[in-house]
Known about the structure:
By secondary structure, the chain is α/β, with parallel strands linked by helices. The protein is built from 13 helices and ten strands. The strands form two sheets. The chain has a six-stranded mixed sheet. It has a four-stranded parallel sheet with strand order 5-4-3-6, with helices on both faces. Strand 7 (178-182), helix 8 (187-199) and strand 8 (204-210) form a beta-alpha-beta unit. Helix 1 (8-22) crosses helix 7. It is globular.
Amino acid sequence: MTSRNLSANEVATLVEEAESRIRPYILATPLLPATAISRELGVHVYLKLENEQVTGSFKARGAFNKTSILANEGVTSLITASTGNHGLACASAFKTMGVRGRVVVPVTADPEKKQKLKDAGADLLEHGQDAAIGESHARSLAERDGVPFLSPYNDYHVLAGQGTIGKEILRDLADVGAIFVSVGGGGLVSGIAAFVKANRPQCQIVGCSPRRSKVMHESVKAGHIIEEESEDTLSDGTAGGVERDSVTFPLCRDLVDRWVLVEEEEIAQAVYYCLKQHKKVVEGAAGVALAAVKKTADFYTGQKVVAVMCGANISMANLKTIINTYA
């Protein structure tokens, strides 16, 4: 892969290639009309149900794309880092492609997610307090052992895999006005934005983050990647820092039209809405995107908008708390 930054059009081409490569392994997820919230907001809201994706999140797309490429090149061993979803996706991809894979997770990662990783056959290594520290450790292990490191977001083939969501959205809803995407390291929003802007430039891309963990949001504002402490958030899938040289930063800076921050209560209410109205279990990071739709609805009156429900891997403890609070 080239060391220079790729343009949106170049990434869009990688998305097209990824789509045909991963199709045997992943689902084309449904686009569900969210009728109750649409009536309330005066906006035609659709939910892109990546919570129903294999392994329970969008991460399967990038993991299968990159692992498939490396396996075809003869790679037999990989290492990655994850707070859960990316690790689960990689464990599945490693197993399917017949490669040995180790997954570094923070000590603080959700115990249920860690157990799921072990159950999926991942060789689990616990290190550090957050995703950025885990990633740094995984990279040094990869360098020491001479094996490729599979980044959760800082890789064009990974983000191109995630970008196949944008291709599916445009196929199912050609006149979409805006797509709301939760942002951590920026792989999901970069991939979707690159494909959508290359094919429907008038569609707005909205980057959504919890106020308690907003590194990419603040980095774009500052014009360079910053370091900022992330606090505990229901959106654990987007928590943590962003690598200094991340290929996602220029794509986020240039292609995301609007940035929205949401509060913890707004995230919890969005998770509860999905459960109550649609009987869909979504994690906090998915709630972030839907909460952002609600917060910015006045800008999109009468338009069709999509909130990407990026995953379903919420802990039972968090789900119970949300149900007890709002039911």
